[in-house]
Amino acid sequence: MAAIESFGTTHPGDPEPGDLIEIFRPAYQHWALYLGDGYIINVTPVDEGPPATFASAKSVFSRKARVRMQLLKEVVGNDTYHINNKYDGTYAPLPVEEIIRRAEYLIDQEVSYDLLGNNCEHFVTLLRYGEGVSDQASRAISAIGFVTAAAGAFSLLGLLRSRSRERQY
């Protein structure tokens, strides 16, 4: 795995066209696809101020996103990033020419966005592999499922406890 770096220090290797770029924001990871010559393609919330930032709460609740071509260094800002083609062992990457053609076709398009079902990682993996996948979303869905199951179990325990007390009197 490549080193994690910021633009203030050394670069974590030179990305190649079609590479997935994982950007580490304070509370989550943002994903982009490297196009070449320092540019990436990524999704940003519709009608958000500066297009390079995806860190606001608005991005979490947005239902639409705009596909943008931006300079990698501007999108990363003061955050860190690394090249992360982590699904290459599971999915075969499409030919680079096809990845870039598909990406360029979508520039400036408005697309649907859903944090759990159609997020920035889904977007770039769909371009690279033809399959939209997101470990980040899967982990969130699992956490939500665990919390829901735990809440249900506690509710059931509370109900059983109250019923057993009722019978004693």
TrEMBL record:
GO molecular function: N-acyltransferase activity; phospholipase A1 activity; phospholipase A2 activity
Keyword Hydrolase: yes
A single GO BP: N-acylphosphatidylethanolamine metabolic process
Keywords: Hydrolase, Lipid metabolism, Membrane, Transferase, Transmembrane, Transmembrane helix
Transmembrane feature ranges: 140-160
Superkingdom of origin: Eukaryota
InterPro entries reported in the protein's UniProt record: H-rev107_PLA/AT, LRAT_dom
Any one Gene Ontology cellular component term annotated for this protein: cytoplasm
Domain LRAT as annotated: residue spans: 20-136
PANTHER family tied to this protein: HRAS-LIKE SUPPRESSOR - RELATED, PHOSPHOLIPASE A AND ACYLTRANSFERASE 1
Family per record: Belongs to the H-rev107 family.
Protein name per Swiss-Prot or TrEMBL: Phospholipid-metabolizing enzyme A-C1
